[in-house]
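RECORD CONTENTS
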Amino acid sequence: MGPARAPERSRRRWPAAVFALALLLTAACGGTSGDGGDAGGEEASAAAEPIRLGYSAWPGWFPWAVADQAGIFEQAGIEVELVYFSDYLSSLDALAAGQIDANSQTLNDTLVSVSAGSDQRAVIVNDNSAGNDAIIVDESIQSIEDLAGKVVTAEPGVVDHFLLLQGLASVGLGEDDIEFRGLPTDAAAAAFAEGEADATGVFAPFTLQALERPGSKVLFDSADFPGTIPDLLVATGALVDERPEDVQKVVDAWYATLERLESDPEGSLAILAEAAEIDPEEYRSLQAGTRLFTAEEALAAFRGQASPEGLRPMAEQINEFLVSSGLAEEPAPLDELFVDRFTADHLARQGAPQGG
């Protein structure tokens, strides 16, 4: 069971047969500019190239398919070409190379790219993982302390590895206290399911595969560590600097899409499930593990007001993790990374309070 669309996401590979099919399934479709905004802005958007927006298989990013299919980009007056990446890592490379204008990606991966010199700006806080990343254990483990000396699999240097370290640190343990085996996520789940490890750190739907092992259970998950795994829309610095009006329209379209999810839940669910290539009930089972942010919540995260969900304090923690794990040579600079003005402008036009 699980979507045919399967990225490497630092929540990565899906089963090989499914992944092979997924390589054949890319979505590249965009609307045309429609009515909205002032005439000069419309002419500028019409003359500009479509914004190429990348996304991969994650419940917090599939709403982009609703924006596309429901005509929300057109209503916002912006032409967007959605580019679906079966291989999430390729989407990171595409953004860093300027082959796309914006990409849906984790804060962890954004910091790696920025540390390496890529000019990237977070313009939307899409969601936080709220249970869809989990540490799953066998029946011999009853507490986090019981992980000491155990064989634990996870993909090294990525979000589930980071979640594992957060859990260990909460009881005074570290990676040296366990026997860590770094494997791609699909292999990590399979090794655990086959009894070759005592615990594993994986994301949904690989959690389902891991839990097929008799006696297995979730020890802790991302809901126990709020803010640990933020997911973002990240744009190139060039797009933000040269086409801010168009970035604003994309941000407006995102929040209009969230409204559509609320006002037409069944119609939206059908689009989401089709995009994920699972049935609606299967998709519904994954929704609770992803917390989509309202504009107010996103602005608070941008400005660090929602501890522990503030982006900057979490980025500082992740920077330390990336350097210590060897994924980054030095911490990513943060001063220009988090761009809150588009969300603030959206809220101002809705007459909503914006805080300090």
User: Anything to note?
Assistant: The mean pLDDT is 86.
